[in-house]
User: Fold these one by one.
Assistant:
Number 1:
Amino acid sequence: MNTNSNVYTIVYTTLIVVVAAAILSIAAMALKPKQQANIKAETISQMLTAAGFSSKEDLAKLGNDKVLAMYSQNIKTAFLIDAEGNKTGELETEVSGIELQDNLKLENKNIQNGNPSLPVYVFEKDGQDINVIPCYGAGLWGPIWGYLAFNADCTEILGAYFDHDSETPGLGAKIKDEPSFREQFKGKKLNFDNPDNPFDIVKGGAPADNLSAIDAITGATMTCNGLDAAIDTWAKAYMPFLQKKAAAATGDDCCEDGCCEDGCCEGHDHDHDHGHDHAHHHHDHEHNHQEG
Amino acid sequence: MNEDLKKTLLNPIFKGNPITVLVLGICSSLAVTVQLKGAFVMALSVIIVTGLSSFVVSLLRNSIPNRVRIIVQLVVVALMVILVDQVLKAYAYAIDKQLSVYIGLIITNCIVMGRIEAFALGNKPIPSLLDGLANGAGYGMILIIVAFFRELLGSGTLFGLRVLPASYVPNNLVILPPMALIILGCIVWVQRSIQKDLQEK
C-alpha cells in the first residue's frame, strides 16, 4: 500500500488520534475518583497548614483518611457568604461527607460578576477561632491559589499557604516551597481602610513599619504580582465579612463571647460602624466593592 | 541474536549512556534530583515512557506515513506521558506534585524521541522495547546517583530518612541546580577516565 498518499495519511492520523483520545478518556474516567480524593485531602492539608495545625509535609505522611479526620475534629463550622458578607449556606464538616467550596476558579469569576458564594472555614484551636479563607489568581504560567488564616476577629493573619499549577521551580514556585516566604504573613493584617489594595507584596523589600506588606521573592516578580493581585481581589470580596467580624469584636460585648460565630451578627446592627448598607435586604443594591 | 539483545540492553546503561555520553535529558536531571524519592519516581516514569513508546512506534513502524512520522510519534509519546501522569496523580499524588511540570515535560525529553527515531523505526518491537527500557534505565541510573549525593549532602537524609548526624549542617549549595550540573560533570569525568575511547582528542 502507498503509505504516502494524502488519503492514507489523513485517515491514518485521524485513526491514531481517535484511538489515543479513547484510551485517555477511559483512563481519566477510571482514575478520577481516586484523584479527586487526593485533591480534597490536599486542599484540606493546605487549610490545616495555613491555620497552623500541622505542616504540609507531616500531613502528606498521614494519608488522606487521617487528614480528613483531622479536619473534622478541628473545624467548628464552615459556611458560604455572599458579596455583602451574609451567610447563605452551610458546608458539611462531618468526616463522611466533607463539603468544600474548592472551585476557586469559578468563584474568582463570580467575584468579578459581583455574585460570589465564598467559603469561610472556622477552625478552633485552644479555644480560639481561626477563620480560613482562600484566594485565587493568575501567576506567571498558570493559576495560583492559597489559604489565609485569620484570628477570631479577622484583624491579624495567623498563617498562609500557597500553591500553584506551573510556576517556575526555584523562582515562582517558592511561594509554595519557601517556608520563610509564608512565615512573613504571620502577624500581618489586611488594611481595612484601603479595600482596593488591602495587602502588598513589595519588590525590593517592604518597609518594616507597614503591617500590610511583605517582601517579594527575588526573581519571581510576575508570580508575586499575581499573588498580590489574588490576595487583593479576594480580600476585597471578603471585606464586608471581615469588617463585620472586626467590628463585632470591638463594638459589641455580646459578640465577644462567641454568639456571633456564624460571622454575620444577625440581629445586631453594626452598619453604622462602617457605612455599608447591607443589613438584611441584600437583593438589589449596587455592590461598590466589585472588581472592574 | 542473543548477543545483540544483550548489547541493546547494556550499551545505554554505561557505554552509550543517554545523559553522560549522548548528553540528552540534562534539563530534567538537574531539576528533579534534589531528593531520591522524586528522582526514583521520575526514573521509573521515564523508563516506562521510553519503553512503551518505542514498543508502540515499532509496532506501527511499517504503517506510519513518512511525512507525518514525527507527529505520530509525538501522539504516542504524549499518550504514554499523560497516562503515567494520571496514574501518579491517583496513586502518588504528593510525588506527582513535587515533580510538577517535569512529568509532562518527559514529552520533550530528547531521549524518548531520540530512541524512537534512531532505533524503534528500524527494529522489531521486542528489541525496541528493550532499547527503550535500557535507555530509560541509563537515564534513571544517573538521576539516582546525582540525587544520592544531593540529598545526602544537601539535607543529610536518604529517601527522607536521616542518615547523617543532626550536627551536620546541610549544604544549601547542593540543593541548587548548579550543583547538580557539577556532580553530573564529575560523573562524566569518572566515566571518561575509565572509558578512554570516549575522550576527545
Number 2:
Amino acid sequence: MTVKQFFRSTAFKCVITLLAILLICGVFLTVMYGFLEVSKGEKLQRAVSKVYGKTTVTVYGLDSEGKEVEINAENTDPKSFMSKQAELESSTVIDMYKITFDDKEGFDYLLQVTGKGGYGGGTVTCWVSVKMNADGTQIAGIGNVTVGANVGQSFIGKIQSSMLSGYGEKYGDGIVYSTEDGFVSTGASSSSTAINNAVNGAMQFVRDYVAGGDK
Amino acid sequence: MNKYKKITLDGLIFQNPTLMLVLGTCPTLGLISSAKSAAGMGLTVVVILTLSNMIISALKKLIPNEVRIPCYIVVIATLVTFARMLLEKFVPDLYDSLGGFLALIVVNCIILGRAEAFANKHTVLESAVDGIANGLGFTCALTVMGIVCEFLGSGSLFGFHIMSFTIGMFATPAGSFIIYGLSIALFTYIINLFERNKRVKENRLARENLLDKEAA
C-alpha cells in the first residue's frame, strides 16, 4: 500500500472521524465543566440548607492560624476544622464545620462522612449534624442526616426520610446504629449499612475531637 | 404530516420502548419504586434521546459505516456527561436520587437502538420527532408504573404521604418486576383490543362496499 492509498483508505477515514468526534466532544465537555462545576463552597451551602432548612445559622471553619472564622458570602472558601481526612474503621471523615444558631444557645458540628460497606463494597457520603451540649464537651444528640454522593449505590433513592430522621429520635449515649436495630430502608439495606457507618463514624470522630484528638 | 403522526404514535404507543419493545429494563426496574425518580429519569432520557438522534442524523453521511457504533457511543456518552453536569448543578436532589442509573443512560438500549434503527436513516427533523416520541413513551410508562409502585410500596405519591398501609415488596425491585409484567400485559391487551376493533371495522366497511357494488 502506498502512502497515497493509505490516506484514501477507509481505515484512515475511520481513524480521523473517530478522533475528530472525540476531540470535539472532549473540548465541549471541558468548556462546559468550567461553567457547571459545583465548587466546594457551593456544596457546603447546599448541605447546610438541606440539613438546617430555613433555620438561620452561621457556619464556622478554621483559618490558617487555627482561629475560628465565619464562612459567608465574602469568605466563601470553606476551611474545615480538619487538616486532613480521618480514616476510621468503617468510615472516612472528610470535613467538619461548626454551626451556631441565631435564635438559640449551643452549637452543632456538621460533618461530611463517607460510610463504607454499601452495596457491592461501595460507599455513601452523608452530612451529619452532631448536637453538642452547652459547654461543647459532650454529644447531646444527632440532628439531621442527609445523603449526598455515593459510589455504586443504585438503590440510594430508596433510602427513606423516616430512617434518616430516626437517628436523632433514638439517640442515646454510646449508641451504635445498625440495620439490625431497625435503621434500614426496604430495598436498600446495604446502602443503609453505609449510612449507619457514616453516622457512627461522625459520632466517634466528634467524641475523639472534643477529648483532644485529631485537631 | 401523516409521517410525523405515525412516528409520534409509534414512539408513544404502538412501538412504546418500555411496554411493547421491552427496552430500557434496567432503569425501569431500578427506579419505578419512586414516581419522582421515574419521571426525572424519563425526562432526562427525552432530552438525551432527542439530541443524540438529531446529532447522529446530522452526521450520518460523515461517519463511516465501520465505526458508526463507537461514534454513536461517544456522542451519547458526551450528552449523558453534560446532562449529569446540568443536573448536579441545578437539580442536585434528582441527581442524588438517580444515583448510578444516570451514568448508565450511556448504555441504555433505547438510545442506541433509536440511533441505529432510525436516526441514521432519517432526516434531522424526523429523528427529533422520533426522539421526543420515544422519550415521552418511556417517561409516561415509567411514571405511571412509578405512581403505582410508590403508592403500594410507600403509601405516598411523588413523595407526599397519603396512607399508612403499605406493601413493602412493591418498594423493592421484585415488586417493580411484578408491576412491570402486569403493565406489559395490560398495555398489550388494550393495544390488541384496539387493533382487533379496527380490523373488524375495516372488514365491515369492505363487506358493505362489496354488497353495494353487487347491488349496483
